[in-house]
Amino acid sequence: EFAAVLGDATERMFERKYLTDWPDEEAVTGGLLGAFEALANATSARVHNGIEIRAKLTTRKAEKCNGMDAAIHFHCDVPEWALRASVLLQAKRQEPGIPFNSADHYRLSRQVEAMLDATPEAFVLVYSKGQGICAFPAASASALGSQDLFDIGFSPWRTFLAGLFRGRFGDPRPGRLPPAKAEDKGPKYELA
User: How many Å apart are CA 28 and CA 169, to the nearest integer?
Assistant: First the structure.
């Protein structure tokens, strides 16, 4: 239910703001994940005190090194469920049936390879006016021969969040993930 509440609320916000208040990938990712984190933590404070969610954006310099735009870290420590899971995200805009051009497809391939070097728990988050927010496994995206991500299976945003919160995927060791800033030398994404 937690994923449904968060997924529906952030999807509605996406529908209102996509291509208007949020004109590009950076604005969508920042706005979406910022709202997601704030709503998630406010909701979890009312429901369970043991749930913590962090959404981290990377710098452009770090993105060139590690391929990711953002990471989501989920930590649940309640008596009936103790879980820690983190995923890497690369964000793109695409509509079904409209493939990436060769340069964008090559860039995505390089970004996905860099994320997969850090962890298999990596996804391409696609923003689409027709489909909403879609999560594609990075491993599938890297194997794709065509330049249209919609040629492979994806999870809608709400389903993606449910999978993360239920432990169906996500790296349980956040210290394995690359830093948000290329010059960071310290611990990588630790939850307080």
Answer: 24
What are the pLDDT digits (tens) for 54-113?
A: 888 988 888 888 899 999 998 888 788 788 899 999 999 999 999 999 999 999 999 999
Q: How far apart are CA 75 and CA 51, in angstroms?
A: 6
CB atoms within 10 A of CB 35: 17
Tokens (6 digits) for 151: 């040629």
Section 114-124 average pLDDT = 93
pLDDT of residue 181: 59
Q: Would you state the pLDDT for residue 188?
A: 39
**C-alpha torsion sign, points 50, 55, 139, 22:** positive
Nearest Cα residue to 123 out of 158, 87, 163, 93: 87
Instruction: Give the CA count within 13 Å in the CB-facing half-sphere of 190.
Output: 6
Residues near 124 by beta carbon (within 8 Å), at least 6 away in sequence: 89, 90, 91, 92, 108, 112, 135, 136, 137, 138, 141, 149
pTM attached to this predicted model: 0.86
Contact of 37 with 54, CB cutoff 8 Å? yes
Where do the DSSP E strands lie in the chain? 51-57, 70-78, 81-93, 122-128, 132-137, 155-156
pLDDT digits over 164-187, tens only? 988 888 888 766 666 665 444 333
